[in-house]
């Protein structure tokens, strides 16, 4: 039996990683976001923001990493796996900055499908920036729009996660994946 692949999406600083960590704490299988790793590797090579300097290279690295996560997940014998961001996020961000990308990005979104998509809306009260997360709240709202649009265009029904503490939000997700 194939496991359910559940992706948690949202703009920057919406609580995705906090929810993923909580789900992991309660012994759910979770795959973590890779964009921070890609950003940090570039920073070690002297490139402050690879996404801003070379968005196509950054996005290619994300596509490759997320496809690997997805294929690795198919080999794990559990009923469900949670992902911190999915493959279509890459297209949403490229659309956000109005940059073109190769057709292989679209092909990857068509080939590797998720079973459930949970969308975390922008939340000003928890929004903050750091070395890898530099987007303002206004930018986070625009990214949210692009995420919703891209996932919808690929046929996903995005389930919006209401505001609340991490347990309430995690419980909402768990109750809606049954």
From TrEMBL:
InterPro entries: NadR/Ttd14_AAA_dom, P-loop_NTPase. It comes from the Bacteria. Gene3D superfamilies: P-loop containing nucleotide triphosphate hydrolases. It comes from Aquimarina muelleri. This is ATPase. SUPFAM superfamilies: P-loop containing nucleoside triphosphate hydrolases (SSF52540). Residues 5-169 form the NadR/Ttd14 AAA domain.
